Amino acid sequence: MSRSGRREMRCGLCGHRFDAASLACHSACPLGAHCNLICCPNCGFQVVDATKTRLGGWLSRVVHTRRSEGEARPAGPPAQPVPRETIPLSHVLPGREVQIVALREMSGPRISRLGAFGLVPGSRIEVVQRRPALVVRVGETEIALSVEILERIEVVPPAPEIRRAVGEGA
Predict the structure, then answer these.
(1) From residue 6, how far is each of 18, 19, 33, 64, 151 by CA, in Å?
(2) Which fold, 87-156?
(3) Domain boundaries, the chain
(4) What is the pTM of this model?
C-alpha cells in the first residue's frame, strides 16, 4: 500500500498496473465485503485479494512481526530492476530468443488466447521464421501470428544467466 492509501497492483497476465481499491468490480461486488477477488480492468484476469483472506491476514501479521524484530530485513537499499529498451516482436530476426515484457492495447479475450499458448509477460520465445508469416516457438509449441498482434507484443533480449563452465574451480 502506498502513502496515499492506494493499493497499486500489477496484473500477472497482461502486466497492466491499476489501483485495486478503486475497482468497480471490487468495491461494487454483489458479495460486498465477502468478495475475495480482484479483477484486472484491462484483461479481466482474477486474483485472490490476500488482504481479505484469513491466511493472507495471518501471513501479513507474521511477516510484519518478524520484520519489526529485525529478522529477514534485507541489507542495503532494495534492488531496482535495470530498465531495458523494448522492441516490438515484429522486429526480431529468425533464430533469436527474446523475453516478452508486455502485451500492449489488446482486448481481454485476445490476451487470454495468447496466454493459453504461453505468450505472457516473462516468458521466453524464439522466432522461427518471418516469411510467409512470423512463427514463434514457446516451449514445444509453434504459433503463427499476424503483424497486427506482433506489433503489440513488446520484447527484450533475455537477461543473461550466470553459468559456470564444467570443471571451473570455485
Answers:
(1) 9, 6, 18, 19, 32
(2) SH3 type barrels. (2.30.30)
(3) 8-68, 87-156
(4) 0.49
